[in-house]
Write a structure and sequence with these properties.
It contains 19 helices and no strands. It has helices at 14-25, 28-40, 44-72, 76-83, 90-123, 131-142, 145-165, 168-194, 200-207, 216-229, 236-241, 250-278, 289-298, 304-338, 342-361, 368-372, 377-405, 407-415, 424-448. It binds phenylalanine. Residues 24-25, 27-30, 103, 228-229, 231, 234, 236, 322, 325-326 line the site of phenylalanine (PHE).
Length: 453
């Protein structure tokens, strides 16, 4: 599907693109991070703000990234260079490249835990155990530095292997069948979760919003989560859009990906929160949240061991289609802008991600200084690159398209392939005024105003 080092390719079909973009979007962001954020930020009220962010900011920004990507046929740095030659705007693309590398380094640590859980499932390590015991096993496992580093390396090599080997087509074809299966499993697990004794409290935590819980920390977390989950703000969708064909409909593809991604997140929450309350786990459990709650569900279903092995395998595939897209951004940059071969770019970026990922791997119990540093080294990587930097990137993109490149050429690009872009007026308003004002307002309220208090 994507490129060789000599020619840039295009997606095989419209569906091929939607699947690849959805593959990038759907991942640990939905199944692991969304429940954590929801748990830490007050439950239903957070979900409410999150959905508003997806609809009002996520969809227009995704359309914009795709348009910039298709117009320029470039990685993020090249895209800004082509549209505004000689300007400093390319630094926005550069921030995206760095952000991709940083997120990849921490994301692969968590993906490594998923691999570990496939093994736990097969070996029955967690079978029949209560939440406390499962929590202790999880902590013991993440505290092992060598294990975490090995799993990190393993997952990164897997990702690089796919990106270099050009077997992406195969992965896409496989995920075409595997992801619907994941969705079915998620739904089945939801049913078990809400029928567990004591699940009711979880259902109301997840569905009954307490609006008094909303403050700017919650709003910023929701906005950041929307960017992270939709793979926006660092140029992933610019890069993926660069492989789009001119006759693809950008607006409907973007909306489809955003809605699909949010649906998976909402369903994942439905699976986690009832079971969380049923199992007596703290909603603020942090990175270990789903790793403690999920085994509790599997321990309460027939053939749970089998189910859980299969489930974690599918989650690993979902994570892999996301890490592929994280790696793809820096790789496309080094191939397009620096003339590296795809192979060299992929392996060197992977090496970089591995080295940067080591402190993350060691920050979940292995090394006290890294673990206790604010929200832990890995937590800080997710906070600054998986949230703050993506939001800054999104803001810059809106300002760039709204005021520099211009709405008109952008709309022209979006209109290709879809005779009418029926929401172009609304889209233009959001990109010029709505999104920048909302994002800037949230950033100022969360980071700047408190300094004057
Ligand atoms: N959206 C992916 C997920 O939800 C993570 C990701 C973020 C991928 C940013 C690419 C860019 O797991």
């Amino acid at each position: 599907m994507t490129t060789t080092s000599t020619s840039r390719g295009t997606w095989g079909s419209r569906l091929g693109f939607v699947l690849a973009a959805a593959g990038s979007a759907i991942g640990l962001g939905n199944i692991w991070k969304f429940p954590i954020e929801t748990g830490e930020n007050g439950g239903a009220a957070f979900v409410f703000v999150y959905l508003i962010c997806v609809l009002s900011i996520g969809i227009p920004v995704m359309i914009t990234e795709l348009a910039v990507g298709r117009k320029t046929g470039s990685n993020p740095v090249g895209a800004f260079k082509k549209l505004m030659p000689g300007s400093a705007w390319k630094m926005v693309g550069g921030l995206g490249v760095v952000t991709g590398l940083m997120i990849l380094s921490a994301y692969a640590v968590v993906a490594g835990w998923i691999l570990k859980y496939i093994w736990f499932a097969v070996s029955g390590t967690l079978s029949g155990k209560g939440a406390d015991e499962i929590g202790a096993i999880f902590t013991a496992s993440t505290s092992s530095g060598w294990q975490s580093i090995t799993l990190l390396l393993f997952f990164l090599v897997l990702t690089a292997g796919v990106v270099v080997g050009g077997v992406q087509g195969g992965i896409e074809r496989a995920s075409k069948t595997l992801m619907p299966v994941l969705l079915v499993l998620l739904l089945l697990l939801c049913i078990r979760s809400v029928t567990l004794p004591g699940a009711g409290a979880g259902v109301s935590f997840y569905l009954k919003p307490d609006f008094s819980k909303i403050d700017f920390d919650v709003v910023m977390a929701a906005l950041g989560q929307a960017f992270f989950s939709l793979s926006l703000g660092m140029g992933t969708m610019i890069t993926y859009g660069s492989y789009l064909r001119k006759d693809d409909n950008l607006a409907t593809s973007a909306a489809a990906v955003c809605l699909l991604d949010s649906a998976v997140a909402i369903i994942a929450g439905f699976m986690i929160f009832p079971a969380l309350f049923a199992g007596g786990v703290d909603p603020q459990a942090g990175p270990g949240l789903i790793f403690v709650v999920l085994p509790h569900i599997f321990n309460n279903i027939p053939f749970g061991q089998l189910f859980s092995a299969f489930f974690f395998f599918l989650v690993a595939i979902a994570a892999l289609t996301s890490t592929i897209s994280l790696l793809e951004v820096p790789v496309a940059y080094f191939v397009d802008e620096r003339g590296w071969s795809r192979k060299k770019a992929a392996w060197l970026v992977t090496l970089g991600a591995f080295i940067i990922g080591i402190p993350s791997a060691l920050s979940n119990g292995a090394v006290a200084a890294l673990t206790n540093f604010r929200s832990g080294f890995m937590g800080e990587v997710f906070n600054w690159f998986g949230e703050f930097s993506l939001v800054i990137g999104g803001l810059a993109l809106c300002i760039f398209v709204g005021y520099r490149w211009g709405l008109k050429p952008a709309i022209e690009e979006i209109r290709q392939g879809s005779a009418e872009f029926f929401a172009s007026g609304l889209w233009g308003f959001m990109i010029r005024y709505g999104c920048p004002a909302a994002i800037a307002g949230i950033l100022v309220s969360k980071y700047i105003l408190p300094m004057f208090e």
